[in-house]
Design a protein that fits this description.
This protein is of the alpha+beta class. The protein has three domains: about 110 residues, no CATH class; about 130 residues, XS domain (Alpha-Beta Plaits); about 55 residues. The protein is built from twelve helices and eight strands. It has a four-stranded antiparallel sheet with strand order 5-6-4-7. The protein has a two-stranded antiparallel sheet with strand order 1-2. α2 packs across α4 and α3 packs antiparallel against α4. The longest helix is centred in the last third of the chain and has 74 residues.
Length: about 375
């Protein structure tokens, strides 16, 4: 007998869904619970550590215990982390505080739980992941046998990663911009060629003064909408993956040592990252340019600005529609008056024709009588 697995409901998942529904039912869905997010996060992290939530599926894939009603529950470990991180840093206008806190706790649990260490091996860009402790020849582990935290240093971390700020609190230069930097001897006019593959508005070379001749800079400007922000992050990720991000540039600038990256021998390396508050407040030529042409805003502030612009646009369009409606009413009034005037003229014309015809008939009748007599 064939079984229709599409209608099969995992009893464990069904129980979790009922528990989650009961838990969420106690909260008003319209209530802003963002102030209690830290408490929610610690509570959820404790439950995950206690093993009360199932994360691994029998087929080796993973599931999100905080999305029990989601149809797709067969994530790869990297996709699972992207799912948890994405909801964890989402705007409070789109997600409730408990939901964001639950997913941040889940992302932290996956990164720090030793049982996931083997699954995270080989995945780049995982910040704060546990690295499995290599075994000695006798089969024992080094030290006390516990896995040690290994913060990924392959890619360039953002300011948010350094200070632990979520992206919605992190301040960016807006309209969105990226900073390009290179060592002495690099022609600033060549910066545009290094980022030609990205969708930018313009690349502005910055000509430095005598104090700053050791480095050359440029600012890549993007559109001020969300597609521009996505393009800026794409540029930053490109340089970060190639170990040419802000962290590597600062290490080089501080004399700690240059990290190997793209570019052949003898070629001046170009570094790139998204412009944030640290760049905006810098006394360098980059900071002066950013303070002149951009402002600092968080993601929430940009969202609010976009909503205000949308509201203003709606008000303008509503005013124009009202004006058009008034004009249409005026035209309709004139049309009705014209139709009435034409109707009266037609009636007068009809009466004139009738009177003329009656007079003509009488005249012909009189003429006929005179002819007979």
């Amino acid at each position: 007998m064939d079984l229709d697995l599409d209608d099969y409901v995992d009893p464990y998942e069904e129980a979790e869904a009922e528990a989650a529904a009961a838990e969420d039912g106690s909260d008003d869905p319209d209530e802003d619970d963002s102030d209690a997010e830290s408490d929610y996060e610690e509570e959820s992290f404790g439950l995950l550590k206690s093993g009360k939530h199932r994360v691994r599926n029998p087929d080796g894939t993973f599931r999100c215990p905080f999305c029990p009603g989601k149809k797709k529950q067969g994530y790869k470990i990297k996709d699972l982390l992207q799912h948890a991180d994405g909801i964890g840093v989402s705007s409070k206008h789109r997600r409730h505080g408990r939901e964001r806190a639950n997913h941040r706790a889940f992302a932290r649990f996956v990164r720090t739980e030793p049982s996931f260490a083997e699954d995270l091996v080989g995945i780049t860009g995982i910040q704060g992941a546990i690295k499995p402790t290599p075994a000695n020849r006798d089969g024992s582990t080094n030290g006390d046998g516990k896995a040690k935290a290994n913060v990924d240093t392959a890619g360039s971390s953002s300011v948010a990663a350094k200070v632990g700020l979520p992206r919605e609190v992190e301040r960016f230069s807006w309209p969105w911009a990226c900073v390009l930097a290179a060592g002495a001897g690099f022609n600033t006019e060549d910066f545009a060629g290094r980022v030609a593959m990205f969708s930018s508005v313009e690349v502005v070379p910055l000509f430095v003064d005598e104090v700053e001749v050791a480095e050359t800079f440029a600012v890549v400007r993007f559109t001020n909408d969300w597609s521009g922000f996505s393009d800026a992050l794409t540029l930053e990720n490109h340089f970060s993956i190639n170990k040419l991000g802000k962290k590597e540039f600062e290490m080089r600038d501080n004399g700690i040592g240059s990290v190997e990256g793209d570019g052949g021998e003898g070629e001046v390396k170009v570094y790139g990252w998204v412009a944030r508050a640290e760049d905006y407040d810098s006394p360098s030529v980059v900071g002066r340019f950013l303070r002149k042409h951009t402002v600092l805003k968080t993601i929430d502030e940009v969202s609010k600005t976009e909503l205000e612009k949308s509201g203003e646009m709606v008000a303008i369009l509503a005013s124009k529609i009202e004006e058009k409606n008034r004009h249409l009413q005026d035209l309709e009034t004139k049309k009705n008056a014209t139709e009435l005037s034409i109707s009266r003229l037609e009636e007068d014309n009809r009466k004139l024709h009738e009177a003329y015809n009656e007079g003509l008939v009488k005249m012909l009748c009189g003429f006929s009588k005179r002819m007979k007599t």
